[in-house]
Amino acid sequence: MDTSFPREDTRAPTPGKADGAAPTALVLGAPSPPPHDHLIWSIFSTIYLNLCCLGFLALVHSVKARDQKVAGDLEAARRYGSRAKCYNILAAMWMLVPPLLLLGLVVTGALHLSRLAKDSAAFFSTKFDDADYD
Q1: Spatial distance between the Cα atoms of 103 and 109, rounded to a whole number of angstroms
Q2: CA 19: distance to chain centroid?
Q3: Between 42 and 131, whose confidence is greater?
Q4: Rounded (5°) CA angle 77-83-89
Q5: DSSP string of 11-24, one letter each residue
Q6: I want to staple 45 with a disulfide (CB 3.0 to 4.6 A). Which of 49, 56, 80, 91 is the partner?
Q7: Interval 76-92 mean pLDDT
Q8: What is the chain's Cα-based Rg?
Q9: CA 40 to CA 37: how far, in whole Å?
């Protein structure tokens, strides 16, 4: 049995020791909230299959963030969670902006065509006489 390194005592400390001192607990501050992995958002981004596979990249980083959180490396979990959030935002913008832009182009095109048709209606309703062709 290797006893070259000190071992921690896994038993709970007893309240009254031989010298009569009570155990002390030192609290350094409020614990930081656990890092977010944005896994559900990444799954939905992946399902909606966007260009450049941004949803899949977000899913990969979300799974890595969850793995790091389970392993206890909270700083790496925050980094991966932050990257997953960025990829999810990019995927959402990539899915929302082009259809909105297309809708805007269709509406402005329809307005332009309606104004053009109204302006040219007078031209098409003009009656020409036979004398006009001489």
Answers
A1: 10
A2: 57
A3: 42
A4: 135
A5: SPPPSS-TT-PPP-
A6: 91
A7: 95
A8: 34
A9: 9
Report the candidate in 43, 44, 64, 46 with the shortest Cα–Cα distance to residue 55: 46
For 4-57, the pLDDT digits (tens) are 555 565 565 555 555 556 677 766 777 788 899 999 999 999 998 777 889 999
Please identify which residue in the block is written with the tokens 């990019």.
Answer: 90
The number of residues making up the chain comes to: 134
CB count within 10 Å of CB 64 equals: 18
pTM: 0.61
Tokens of 52: 């450049």
Q: Is residue 115 very low, low, confident or very high in pLDDT (cuts 50, 70, 90)?
A: confident
- Report helix, strand or coil for 78: helix
